[in-house]
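Supplementary Note 2. Why include the ligand at all?

Several targets in our set were suspected to adopt different conformations when bound, so apo predictions alone were not considered sufficient. For every target with a known small-molecule partner we therefore ran a joint prediction. The input for DP6 is given below.
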Amino acid sequence: MKATAEAPANIAFIKYWGNADANLRLPHHNTISMNLSGAKTTTTVEFVSSLDADEVFLGGSKVDGTGAERVSKVLDHIRKISGNKQRARVTTHNSFPTAAGIASSASGFAALAVAAASAAGLSLTEQELSTVARLGSGSATRSIPDGFVEWHAGSSHETSFAESLYAPEYWDIVDIITVVDADQKKVSSTLGHSLADTSLLYPARLASMKEKVESVKRALAEKDFPRFGELIEEESLNLHAIMMTSRPSVLYWSPATVRVLQALREWRQEGLLAYSTMDAGANVHVITRGEDETAVTQRLQALKGVEKTILGKPAAGAHLVK
Ligand code: DP6
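The joint prediction is reproduced in token form.
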């Protein structure tokens, strides 16, 4: 009744923003991501007959409130399909500093889904595990399969799942996570999703997504890095335009965010190809080719306001460790 799993964070190239069904976390369109080697969560789940409520510990501290409720939602689903009624003790820790401003919900809920299913004696397919992870956090769906991943939006719990497009070795690109603000984000992504359709730009975003997903998949298939980079940077800016024009407006950027975005444009003029993509926060994920990793990292670290960089290489998905 006990199992431990490990899962990577992931960076989305096509972003999930807004829900067709907020309870099931069903998105409006497919999204595409890459798992990150440099940021992972390890989680142990133990079902214990003497517990009368689930207990959650993150890095040694007890988690209460919404965080604990989201964990119980995933555990309730596992209890429902396994018939096991026991409550669980969940202990989890992140390989990256929790205060680094990097989302831990994707790696956290992916590791939870794999560990809880195994602890309950279930042997679920990768596709089923990705649907279970989704109940805790949408982006966690994509941290189950390996490498480069597509999340199929679907229209029900069973049909909204992720699958691997390519193994981690497929393409030597890296994500240099550029930390400019290590504080917890001011507006959670869960709240942000609920505001998406208050932006007048949101219908235009949704209308463009199918074609954008196809274009990014084509650039991936052709390993056309400049095309890929242009597409993912535009997609991320489109997402942030939605955030900024929501009611109320959500502005995640800091002055150092803009400094990084401008620097990348200058470096591209010089022929050093690096592109940005950003989640719900001020930090910038800088995507570049493996051969340019050192040059880009050195330049990023020299910019004013950059606190540190964390390297993410394409990585395997969630798996059991014990
Ligand atoms: C901007 O998966 O964090 O990072 O389901 O409420 O946990 P919840 O939201 P979450 O949203 C991710 C938003 C994003 C884009 C992405 O990763 O696709």
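The chain has a mean pLDDT of 96. Residues 12, 15-17, 25, 31, 103, 105, 137-139, 189-190, 193, 279-280 surround DP6 (CB under 6 Å). Comparable summaries for the other entries are listed in the accompanying table.
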